[in-house]
Amino acid sequence: MLDRFFSNRQYRRQYAEYLGYHHRSFDVKGLTTQGVYTLELTQVFVELGLDRQTVEAASADPIRPMTSALQRGRHAVWSYLASKQIAGQTLVMLGPPGSGKTTLLKHLAITLAPIKPDLEITQGYSRLPLLLFLRDYTDSILKNPRFTIVHALQASLRKWQIEIPPEWFQEELKKGQCLVMLDGLDEVADSQIRQQVVTWTERQIALFSKNQFVVTSRPFGYRSNPLKKALVLEVQPFSIMQVEQFVHRWYLANEIMSAQREDPGVQMEARSGAEDLLMRLRRAHVLLDMAVNPLLLTMIATVHRYRSSLPGRRVELYAEICEVFLGKRQQARGLAFDLTPAQKQRVLQPLAYHMMHEKQREILLPDAVKAVQAPLNRVSPQNSGEDFLKSIVNTSGLLVEREAGLYSFAHLTFQEYLAAVHVQDRRLENELLAQVENTWWHETIRLYAAQVDATNIVRACLNKRTPSIQALTLAMECLEEAREVQAELRNIFDRLAQSVDHPNQEVRRISAEVRLALRIRRMLRVDEDRYVDNSFVTHAEYQLFIDESRRFNRYYQPDHWKGYTFLPGDGRLPIVGIRPSDVLAYCEWMTDRDQGEWRYRLPRKNELELLASNSKVVEATDEPVGYWYTVSAQDFVCAKFNLAKVANVETLMNQIQDRFNDDWRLFARLPNQNQARKLIMSRVRYRQFTVLDLDRNLNLDRLQDPDIVRDVNIVRNRGTISRAQALKERVQYDLTLAQDPDLERARMLNLQEVLQVAKSLSSELDHAQNQEGAPELARMLLRGLERAESHAKNKQSVFQPELIRALTTAHGYASELVLALQEARSQARLRVRTNTILNISEILQQIESFQNGGTPPAREDALRLLESYIDLYLDFIILEARIVQKLPSFEGIRLIRERKQPVV
User: Fold this and answer.
1) How far is CA 286 from the centre of its chain?
2) What count of other Cβ atoms lies within 10 Å of the Cβ of residue 622?
3) In terms of C-beta density within 10 A (0-12 exposed, 13-18 middle, 19 or more buried), how is residue 820 classed?
4) Rounded distance between C-alpha atoms, residue 454 and residue 449, angstroms
5) What is the pLDDT of residues 235-280, one digit of tens each?
């Protein structure tokens, strides 16, 4: 009895060693790009998610996106194995190519192999793992009706010269102590033979019914031959968190093998390499889409580390993906097919090109057959197009059947890549040159450019006198990926960067649009529903928003600007000095432009670390730049900076001190000056909110000073002076048109629109207060335009001296009106400061009086009111210093792009 006990332990230990040695390596057989080192599975394995699914609904798509719904339903395999509710039930794990089915079974085998497995990992589950690959035993199953699992195990052990008596396995199976794992039901290509293998499997389940069985298959191989009474589980795609886990583990394993040690230095190198790849994946949305498939992610990591940096040479990755998924990996496993991977690709390329040409993402089976039959006849005339397509769907995963008789490529990128290869093979470049304005073709053009000399493509993008935004964006992207291009075209990067400051407004607009388009394309994906911007929105991009908003009488220029256009040379710098309400409006504008499933918003407080880890250095500026984020619906903070961090503290304090002294000189006999100075300078250092936000709740109701409230609102109002400036520009334009020697152009003069604007502005100023003579100037401007309009009605006479004189006079009034409104705002800022000073002094005296009496609540109210006045005073000191460019602004914009929530 004792001898038998020790023999059993010896056999278990011997079998555990066999499993460990046989399955310990991370399997990359069949991949074109191989790493230098063989990695161990335990080093890189990431737990897959599984969810219950019907056979019909199981997806064959190898790069199905991980949605929030999928995340909610997923569980680790141990949750099912250890479940008492389904104890002993056969589990069938369905998954598309590369989803990790075989790797998961190897992980189960290695984890359960020890006599005492880690029950914390296995959730208390412990059985003897028996792992068999069905492809190795198909012939034996067909030839020997009495062939069992025990025979298969013996055959496998003999191959590796391991002697464990079959009786031991028979006894373990009889006791019901085993987890029997049968991998690759779909790898039996012939449907009749597959049915026999399914029958054999069901016979084994019945024969050893006390044990638990797990069978893996692709969906197609199981639907027509399902097992009876089996629980179907679907392998879920990687989430972005799992992608990150795998990349970090894969890089660490490689660095350990390279250095032959593991220490902090090796870990640091691994972390650096992993973060570099993850950053590139977040920028290259297509690659991140593919990374949800474990096999594709392995290929991405290997190609990036050992062949070339991604995404710059992603065509090499796509070529390898096609080769592997069209059969090379199966060939490495000993499976034979009629056509080579290269032949299959040659047949699929015309199909991809046809679908691009027809602007189709899905195609009906008869149309697909028609597209592939001719190229198929050249490589395999005995095969029908329909059989070929169904074979590709069933074996490769590159092509999927979305619905009965409706086919598509698993990802549009595969269609675009194969179409690009077809264009290269058939020398159809002229077809692409005609499509540079068509965004549907842009990805195909980029992938073509990555394989050839892209000079002609880039030239086609620039051919027009005023290239379109789409064509310019394409040119920039082709230059980044092109295999080669003539040197003189390379300077388009610099030309485009400089053109945001071009004197021509339309050139500036197009350049800014290209920058904005590239910004959106390059946002970094951080999870299934969010992208983050890794840099600050620039002056040029924000100017697009200002200009479009002005058409609807909405004005969002920074408060320290003297006009509504950024200064020359600032186009590439981050926009700063923005109110949070302006950023909210900008986000709404961006969302409206997108018109899709995404919305743009400010970051939230819990996303600050996310933004910090996905930032790049702000170009061409040494000034500090922050960005608004939300703490609550109405509470905004500017990240990283408070008042004392804006500039050199001494410079800041000196600016405020000088302005304070200038303001208090107006009240030479006012008491409490030194005390007020100390309080203000102390508040500069310690107040917790940001430097300047004129939309911030200033507690104006608490201030109980109608003069301050009125003047604050004058400063807050950017619309009146902006409309006056726009009116001045329009009158100048009309005057230039009236003086134009081209008679046809001169006759285009129409003053009706400018008259309506002048009337509206005059009416607005008639009801305004403290506008320093602006209302009278607006009325004079209106009368001048009315005189000009009466002269302009005489179309027979061009170059009328009266018309030109009237417009010249009106332009003079418009210029004076702008100056008057600027002065009115300047005086309003001064009055806010001086009235605030009076209130500060008065409250300080009131607080002193409380020392001789008064209630504590009254004292507390006075202190809170004093703080509000000091904050208001500081805001207007800072604003004044920014206007005269003695203090920097830093409230900028970082964006989050988030999937819109469905309306319930």
Assistant:
1) 11
2) 6
3) buried
4) 5
5) 999 988 999 999 999 999 988 888 888 889 989 998 998 988 898 8
Q: What sign has the CA pseudo-torsion 233, 237, 242, 247?
A: positive
Would the pTM of this model clear 0.85, i.e. be above it? no
List the chain domain ranges: 2-30+47-237, 657-887
Distance CA 847, CA 318 (A): 75
Q: Looking at the DSSP assignment, which residues form a beta bridge with residue 755?
A: none
β-pair type (231-235, 363-364): unpaired
Q: 């006056």: which residue's tokens?
A: 724
User: Helices (H) and strands (E) in the chain — how many of each?
Assistant: 40, 16
Answer yes or no: are the C-beta atoms of 36 and 55 closer than 8 Å: no
Task: Give residue 62's identity as a one-letter amino acid code.
Answer: P
Cα–chain center distance at 200:
49
Closest CA to 441 of 471, 400, 486, 476: 471
Three-state DSSP at 115 gives coil
Architecture of the 2-30+47-237 domain: 3-Layer(aba) Sandwich (3.40)
pLDDT digits (tens, 9 = 90+) for 191-234: 788 889 999 999 999 999 999 999 999 888 788 889 988 999 99
Separation CA 424–CA 407 (nearest Å):
25
Long-range contacts of 198-207 (CB under 8 A, 24+ apart): 198/225, 198/226, 198/227, 200/141, 200/147, 201/134, 201/227, 202/227, 202/228, 204/148, 204/149, 204/180, 205/90, 207/148
